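S.,

As promised, the MV4 run. Input:
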Amino acid sequence: MKKREIRKILIANRGEIACRIIWTCKEMGIKTVAVHSEADREALHVRFADEAICIGAAPSAQSYLNIPAIISAAEITNVDAIHPGYGFLAESETFAKICEDCNIKFIGPRPEVIGMMGDKVEARRTMKAAGVPILPGSPDPIEDADEAIRIAKEIGFPVIIKAAAGGGGRGMRIVRQEEDLATNLELAQTEALAAFKNGSVYIERYIERPRHIEIQVLADEHGNCVHLGERECSIQRRHQKLLEEAPSPVITPEQREKMGAVAVKACQEIGYSSAGTFEFLLDEDGSFYFMEMNTRIQVEHPVTEMITVIDIVRNQILIAEGADLGYVQSDVQIFGHSIECRINAEDPEKFTPSPGRITALNLPGGPGVRVDTAVYPGYVVPPYYDSMIAKLIVHARTRETAIARMRRALEAMVVEGIKTTIPLHLKIMSDEKFQKGDFSTKFMEEFQH
Ligand code: MV4
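Predicted complex:
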């Protein structure tokens, strides 16, 4: 049933996700090629891959975003496929298209689908047509203040202005009254143009205290699709997720089935393939609305892997080989509860990066503990990239026991030489509202510590 066999994969990424992809390749008997910047010569992904190629200087623009260098490395090493991981080129329609043109399988959905979901206005339109609930708002980019006022009056204040090329919270503006609309529209358009080279913005009804719930899907190239339940991602700060869990403490089996069915149907309508994620806003009354679709593997995929016992990277590779999913929705079961804490190299008081040498390191273990990381004792965290140095993931039968397990694992985790978010996570684990599952995306703003 395989259209093409994948014998060798180039991983166009670094850090824990590059290692994570290599682990699965090893289990599948697939050879791996690491690419790295000049700053990453001593990186773990370089050591664990079968081959490694330096693709440029430390700044990402010259290395991990350097398409000609990456394609050259793929040609020289004669790989069958490229796994982009997350970030960097993972959601670049251009890169996926170039891979395709070079006869290298891009491990992800078709380039056109990546492009469609990258334009948030087009994504909204497509999802609406596929029967996915969206928030009331503008069907097209907003042209001028008159149009903005007309639409805002129709949907009612407060509204939110978002960049069509944005995502992840950058360039958003909340507007609570008509008088403030024109100025904010202009500011949003200017900001969007500066940040994304695309000044196109749209308007939606603003939800005051939503939860961020996302549905993981897996779809093959033959129209088979399943969902792997939801992840609760409401606990974030400055649009950076701090921790994620699965299942959500507030989603019932009925709600899960409903959201999952909506996501699966949408995948089939748009011809989606590979792993993907539907981001939803969940209102206090239980209604959910499409926000964005991520066409990549996500940082927080492990919590879903823990509760479903499905290796998402393995499925991505099998799907890329043209294989049939081989199972149906009723084969997907949810076991227990999983939590992931993102351990960042940062000063928790000042929220600033804290790169440097890790002088001592102890990684926790024991029952139900998983650590996805690429650091080791003596490793120097470079200042050029994302500050996440590890993901601490626990799995237990209940949410309560998972929290207890996370606390003891955080207490056993030692990272000396740099500052990390471990103390912050310990405080969150002890928070009464967190323990009760009583929170929204405003949790960190209201957090007392
Ligand atoms: C919203 C919203 C409320 N109403 N849209 C933030 C990330 C970006 N993907 C969209 N975001 C939001 N969109 C409407 N119509 C609130 C947020 C939001 C948020 C969403 C998820 C997780 C954390 C958040 C923090 C602040 C605002």
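Residues 345 and 387 are 5 Å apart (CA to CA). The pocket of MV4 is lined by residues 135, 160, 167-169, 204-207, 210, 212, 236, 239, 281, 291-292, 441 (CB under 6 Å).

- D.
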